[in-house]
Amino acid sequence: MEPLISIQIQDIRPYFNPGDLIECDYQIDAIPANEIQAVEASVVWYTEGKGDEDMGVHYFERRVLSDDENDLRQWRRFTTTLPNSPLSFDGELIQVCWCVRVRAFLKQGKEYCFEHPFRLGNVESSRAVS
Amino acid sequence: MKAAKFARRFRLWEKKRGDRRTGSKLWATAGEALFFAALFLFGSVSLFAVLTGDAVAVDEGASWGWWIWLVLIVLASLVVVGGGGTVYTILMVGTTAERRRAFAKRATDIDLLAETLPSPKDFPNVPRDVNFRNSPGIKLSYRLPLTSSPSWRLLVIGVFSLIWNGMVSILIVIAIRKHLSIDIPPDWYLNTLIIPFAGIGIASLYLLARQLVLATAIGPTSLEISDHPIRPGQGYRVYLTQAGRLSVKSLALSLHCYEEATYRQGTDTRTERRRVHEQTIFIHEDFEIMPSKPYEYESDLKFPERIMHSFQSEHNAVQWRLVIRGEVDKWPTFERVFPLVVFPSATIPESSEQPAV
Packing angle between helix B188-217 and helix B150-180, nearest 10 degrees? Predict the structure, then answer.
């Protein structure tokens, strides 16, 4: 059975500015609580395009089953202040993308991932000059 | 919202791009761990066998020969590489890219390390601009550094020309000796080989002479700017000086932005660069530059709003630069490139580095 991962960004808008506070909620459904071994939530940027992929992690949290937390499916909120750079960019060779990413690790060793993209900054896209 | 997708199609004849895999990640990790474990095992067993065998036994008072030390060093390095590789591979099992990056980021948050990073702490992946601000200008605040200095090109061509022509000279001497000798017949294979080699040598000498004259005739170019780093939407002053003895057809200063992407294809590493912004700041035509009176010009430079800032990651980059392009009488077109660092339009905090003037 595949888990259903939901991510919600509060006060979603066309783009966030550097220094804005981003508030995210995530939840995992459609799977028994004892099946999930760990959950990782992160706010990351990555590159797309012609070059090899680069990525950077701005925020990261990992939750594992413990005495304090015996159900990792539950709705959880985290907040982080967005950095000054790199800004989201849609270029000719390079795209810089931001997203909130949640990974769920199941007991059989399987891993499921879900992303919610957003834009940081309001940079114009570029096109090649002949 | 999107879920992560991974290509699983197996391609026989194509070169793979970057880190993308066509096989199972688990099997790849297992194979890597086995390889390092085998290396460790082979190194350990061989080292033990060498140390306990007769080969290393020496008479009292004598020392080991150099070859025993060589064998021991090679075997010990196998043990270290194999052991280290096995431990590292096992530690990386089940660790996501985000988790690894998060560990790395935590290390960079240490203030001592932050100073050694290529980007300022407050502006991740924006190149540091401290090298752009450590040279004060005569008229404006900073003198910008040149990227491709003509003297470096001159040095590279000079060294190549020297080595190549030295090699060709030796071949020519050998060929002449064979021709002059009565006992040895002429080596026609060598003679044939000398012709293209000498051609390359002459071409390199011509190129060297041309660069030498170009470097002396077209004098130094200097570009100063009123402030640095650059912020989108802001206005700046630039001041250009060009020395030499030149009859200039046209001299242009323009602002360029390049995107640069590096990718691996099989065992090759390729870099592709594309110009995505070009803005002419000024262009002057038909004038003379004399050694006693260098060309000077000060101009406004307005940066567009909403442009991408300078960006540098492992395989991708966005680079801004000011380019001077000159067409001069009797000489080939010359170009001087001055890189800039464009920061995001956010306010730069006061904690940012101060120029080392």
Answer: 150
Q: How confident is the model at residue B117 (pLDDT cuts 50, 70, 90)?
A: low
Q: Do A92 and B274 touch (CB under 8 A)?
A: yes
Domain B130-144+220-340 CATH (choose: 3.65.10.20, 3.40.50.2300, 2.60.40.640, 2.60.120.510) = 2.60.40.640
Q: Which residue in A has a C-alpha nearest to residue B313's C-alpha?
A: A54
Please report, as a single letter, which amino acid is at residue B356: A
Domain count within chain A: 1
What's the complex ipTM? 0.91
State the CATH number of the domain containing residue A17.
2.60.40.640
A33, part of any domain: yes
Q: Which of B25, B99, B255, B316 is the best mutation test for A, with the most CBs of A within 10 A? A: B316
Task: Count how many Cα atoms sit within 13 Å of the Cα of residue A83 in the half-sphere of its side chain.
Answer: 20
Of B2, B125, B315, the CB nearest to A51: B315
The answer to whether residues B337 and B146 touch, using CB atoms and an 8 Å cutoff, is yes
pLDDT per residue as tens digits for the range B74-103: 999 999 999 999 988 888 777 888 888 887
- Give me the domain span that covers residue A48: 4-118
- The share of chain B scoring above pLDDT 70, in percent, equals 83
Which pLDDT score, from 0 to 100, does residue B351 have? 38
Chosen from A24, A27, A40, A54 to mutate, greatest number of chain B CBs within 10 A: A54
Element (H, E) at B159: helix B150-180
B124/A55 CB distance under 8 A? no
Question: What is the tens place of the pLDDT at every residue in A47-93?
Answer: 999 999 999 999 999 999 887 888 899 999 999 999 998 999 999 99
Contact A115 B316 (CB under 8 A): no
Query: Which residues, including other chains, have CB under 8 Å from residue B269's CB and lie 6 or more apart?
Result: B262, B263
Domain boundaries, chain B: 25-94, 130-144+220-340, 151-217
